[in-house]
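Page 47, continued from p. 46.
Same chain as before, 127 aa.
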Amino acid sequence: MLRNLGIEVEDELRFDDAEVIVDAIFGTGLTRAPEGRFAGWIDAINKSDKRVIAVDVPAGLDADSGVPYAPTEQANVTITLGLPKPGLLKLTGRVLVADIGVPNEVYAALGIDVPGDLFAKGELIRL
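Result:
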């Protein structure tokens, strides 16, 4: 695992003098409550009083259904990639959608209707 690569994953997070925490713990495929070390990390982040930026979705949130499992991170800002995830609409905090270069033809082939000018004003759109 990671130890074989010389990387150690700590059980306890150390924030030291961090001003912001960037959460990229899970991707969009989470369908159950975080457990063990991951649940502990989310609890520690929530108790830290630090500003939190989540990448794509906050840890512990089901991106499709919007179910916030226990625990779910309380992000101040979420920068979601490509298109908004349905579950983000139930989340408080600011949500930004980042253009990651997916052509509209790809979304159309998947049956997703995306306005052609969605990112006309910039690469980050606030929901």
